[in-house]
Amino acid sequence: MAMACSGHMPVEAAKPQPRTHFLACDSPSNSRKIFASSLHFLGKDPAPCRRFHASHIKNAPFARRSKLAVSRSDSIRDYSLELVAMAKPDPLKIMLSGAPASGKGTQCELITKKYGLVHIAAGDLLRAEVAAGSENGKRAKEYMEKGQLVPDEIVVMMVKERLLQSDSLENGWLLDGYPRSLSQATALQEFGLQADLFILLEVPEEILVERVVGRRLDPVTGRIYHLKYSPPETEEIAARLTRRFDDTEEKVKLRLRTHHQNVEAVLSMYKDITIKVNGDAPKENVFAQIDNALSKLLEQGKATSGSLAA
Ligand code: AP5
């Protein structure tokens, strides 16, 4: 929603005017950053304030939390209407990165369960295209078979479109396995899509191969298992588990090479927001590290929006 920006406005008794700290922006990805606090309308007639509320605030993304209040200002012996629009904190926007089988998908399951973010996995989007037999899927499979990056013209728009869907904008997103190259990171920046945190999972290479070879997927629930580290809970689940076409020792080595060729360039784009997490630990312990970072981020977000709305 586009709104004009204004700071403190002069108050005229005859013609009521809003006086406020009022920040606004019109980019869809930043729409949550619209804050309004303590809008004071001075005058005998409450109608202008109500009109302002109806036209500017009622349908704004934070309007659900706005409230219209009437108070009396003794100093100027007039009525002042106060409109307090509480700013909703920005939803989290997180990137999770790491080598093949470092545990990205596993941690995403835990993060989305607790934080309700929309999980967007570049690999899953591509596998869906492969399964659908689309032209993009056929092309993507050639690269995936070789453990190489699928060309940007397929991946970039696919991810961008998913990030801009209403559930991602509303609930925040968790981007898994994207960006994997400098050009993908630059494309996101050009679309105005900024993350709050870039998490890099670190796992020694010799462990990664064992994780890939033992990985199994449940086609019914989408859950990730490992024959040794995270075995299926029942015989019924065990019987229906599937294996990814690129989960072989030979293919994971190719994927690792691609990862090493690109990871430093990607990291260089996110130096200021990167945390490195030790992924060579039980999945609950890995999650505890991530959970700690995300809770802090949320607290900071609440503090910021709270102070603006105060
Ligand atoms: P993608 O599907 O993203 O594969 P990947 O990066 O190789 O990562 P994985 O999915 O294999 O592993 P993960 O880190 O999610 O680990 P998981 O949690 O499953 O990409 C596939 C292909 O698509 C790429 O090669 C490329 O061709 C293409 N592609 C994808 N994104 C692209 C992009 N942006 N641009 C271009 N092309 C792209 O865990 C693995 C196993 O370990 C599981 O069995 C799990 O149970 C177990 N495990 C997890 N955590 C632990 C733990 N803490 N302790 C013990 N075991 C654990």
Quick synopsis:
This protein has helices spanning 47-57, 104-115, 122-132, 135-145, 152-163, 166-171, 182-190, 205-214, 235-240, 249-269, 283-309, and strands spanning 18-23, 35-42, 66-73, 78-85, 93-98, 118-121, 173-176, 197-202, 215-217, 224-226, 274-278. It is α/β, with parallel strands linked by helices.
What does this structure look like?
It is a single chain. This protein has eleven helices and eleven strands. It has 310 residues and is α/β, with parallel strands linked by helices. The protein has a five-stranded parallel β-sheet with strand order 6-7-5-8-11, sandwiched between helices. Strands 1-2-4-3 form a four-stranded antiparallel β-sheet, with helices on both faces. It is globular. The two termini are 22 Å apart. The structure holds BIS(adenosine)-5'-pentaphosphate (AP5).
Could you tell me how far the N terminus lies from the C terminus, measured between alpha carbons in angstroms?
22 Å
Unreliable segments of 5+ consecutive residues: 1-38, 61-66, 74-86, 305-310
What is the CA-based Rg, rounded?
A: 25 Å
Shape: globular
Write down how many β-strands occur, each being a DSSP E stretch of 2 or more residues.
Answer: 11
Q: Share of helix among residues?
A: 40-55%
Ligands bound to this protein structure:
BIS(adenosine)-5'-pentaphosphate
What is the spatial order of strands in the main beta sheet?
Answer: 6-7-5-8-11
